[in-house]
C-alpha cells in the first residue's frame, strides 16, 4: 500500500510538493464536507479519501500546522487567525480566502478533493463557486453530516489528538492502548485547545450562526446530500455511498 499523501502543498503552501500522491482515479471526485465540529466529518473524509483517491483539504489542518511554526515566521494574517482559533471563533473570511487562493493548485489536482472545514460561511461559499467556475470544476455533491447537539458536545469533550501524527482518539469510544499515548506513533495525546468545553460552546454558537445557512445555499443548487452521522464510521460511509449512488 502507498504511504499516505502528506498533502504538503495544501498544509505548507504552494512552494511545497506533496509526496506519495494517491493513484490518480479514473474520474476525479469533488466534494465539500459539512457538519458541526464533532460529527465525525474528519473520519469520513479519511474514508472517502482512501476509497475515492481524493485529497482531504482541511483548512483547520492548515491553521494547526501553522501553530507549530515559530511566531516570527508567521504572517500577521496567520497570527490573527491562530488567535481567533484559540478563542474558538471563526477566522475572518478574508484570511481564509487568501489561504485558499494561495492553494488553488490543490483544487486542480487530478486526484480530486474533499474540502473539509471550508467553506464555513455563505460569503466563503460564494467565493468558492466563482473560483471553481473559473477552474471549470464541477462539484459532485456537498455532504452534510448531521447529529443531535448533546451527542456532539459529549463527543468533542472526550476527543484526544496525537501531537505528532494527528491520529484521533476518544476517552470513551476509542481509547488508546496506553493512556495519553498514540497507538500509531507513540506521540503524546493532547486535547486540542478548541475542544475544551469553553471553546466548544463558542464553536457551536459560531457554527449555528453562520455555517448552518450553508446547507440552504447548496440545497438551492441541488448539491446538498444530508447524511445521518449516527453509528460506526463504516456504517456512515456505507450510508453516504448509497446516497451518492442514488444521485448518479
Ligand atoms: P476545524 O478543524 O475545521 O474544526 O477548524 C478548527 C478551527 O480553525 C475553527 O474553529 C476556526 O477557528 C478555524 N477555521 C478552519 N476553517 C475555517 C474557515 N473556513 N473559516 C473560518 N475559520 C476556520
What features would you highlight for this structure?
248 residues; alpha/beta; Rossmann fold; five-stranded parallel β-sheet; three-stranded antiparallel β-sheet; globular; binds adenosine monophosphate
Secondary structure: elements and pairs:
Layout: H1 8-11, E1 29-34, H2 41-52, E2 55-58, H3 59-67, H4 76-86, H5 93-102, H6 104-107, E3 112-116, H7 122-134, E4 141-146, H8 149-157, E5 159-162, E6 168-170, E7 189-190, H9 197-220, E8 224-228, H10 233-247
Parallel strand pairs: 1-3, 1-4, 2-3, 4-8
Antiparallel strand pairs: 5-6, 5-7
Helix pairs in contact: 2-10, 3-4
Bound molecules: adenosine monophosphate.
> How much helicity do the residues have?
40-55%
Number of domains: 2
Classification by helices and strands: alpha/beta
Query: What coarse outline follows from CA principal-axis ratios?
Result: globular
Give the names of the bound compounds: adenosine monophosphate
Gap from first CA to last CA: 29 Å
Largest sheet: 5 strands, parallel
Relative strand content: 5-15%
User: From the coordinates shown, what is the CATH architecture of the largest domain?
Assistant: 3-Layer(aba) Sandwich
Radius of gyration: 17 Å
CATH homologous superfamily annotation of the largest domain:
P-loop containing nucleotide triphosphate hydrolases
Provide a descriptive summary of the structure in words:
This protein has helices at residues 8-11, 41-52, 59-67, 76-86, 93-102, 104-107, 122-134, 149-157, 197-220, 233-247, and strands spanning 29-34, 55-58, 112-116, 141-146, 159-162, 168-170, 189-190, 224-228. The protein is of the alpha/beta class and 248 residues long. The protein has two domains: 8-147 and 211-247, Rossmann fold (3-Layer(aba) Sandwich); 149-195, no CATH class. α2 packs across α10 and α3 (59-67) crosses α4. The radius of gyration is 17 Å and the shape is globular. It starts with 7 loop residues before the first helix and ends with a helix. The mean pLDDT is 88. Bound molecules: adenosine monophosphate.
Amino acid at each position: 500500500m502507498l504511504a499516505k499523501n502528506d498533502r504538503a502543498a495544501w498544509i505548507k503552501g504552494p512552494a511545497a510538493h506533496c509526496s506519495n500522491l494517491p493513484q490518480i482515479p479514473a474520474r476525479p471526485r469533488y466534494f465539500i464536507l459539512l457538519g458541526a465540529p464533532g460529527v465525525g466529518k474528519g473520519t469520513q473524509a479519511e474514508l472517502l479519501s482512501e476509497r475515492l483517491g481524493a485529497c482531504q483539504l482541511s483548512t483547520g489542518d492548515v491553521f494547526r500546522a501553522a501553530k507549530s511554526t515559530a511566531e516570527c515566521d508567521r504572517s500577521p494574517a496567520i497570527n490573527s487567525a491562530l488567535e481567533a482559533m484559540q478563542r474558538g471563533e471563526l477566522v475572518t473570511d478574508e484570511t481564509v480566502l487568501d489561504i485558499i487562493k494561495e492553494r488553488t493548485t490543490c483544487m486542480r489536482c487530478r486526484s480530486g478533493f474533499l474540502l473539509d472545514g471550508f467553506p464555513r460561511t455563505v460569503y466563503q461559499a460564494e467565493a468558492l463557486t466563482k473560483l471553481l467556475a473559473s477552474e471549470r470544476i464541477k462539484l459532485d455533491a456537498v455532504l452534510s453530516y448531521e447529529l443531535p447537539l448533546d451527542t456532539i458536545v459529549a463527543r468533542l469533550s472526550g476527543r484526544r489528538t496525537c501531537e505528532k501524527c494527528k491520529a484521533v482518539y476518544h476517552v470513551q469510544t476509542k481509547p488508546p492502548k496506553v493512556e495519553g499515548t498514540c497507538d500509531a506513533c507513540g506521540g503524546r495525546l493532547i486535547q486540542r485547545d478548541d475542544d475544551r468545553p469553553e471553546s466548544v460552546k463558542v464553536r457551536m454558537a459560531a457554527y449555528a450562526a453562520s455555517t448552518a445557512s450553508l446547507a440552504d445555499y447548496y440545497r438551492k443548487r441541488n448539491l446538498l446530500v444530508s447524511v445521518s452521522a449516527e453509528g460506526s464510521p463504516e456504517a456512515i460511509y456505507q450510508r453516504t455511498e448509497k446516497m451518492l449512488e442514488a444521485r448518479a
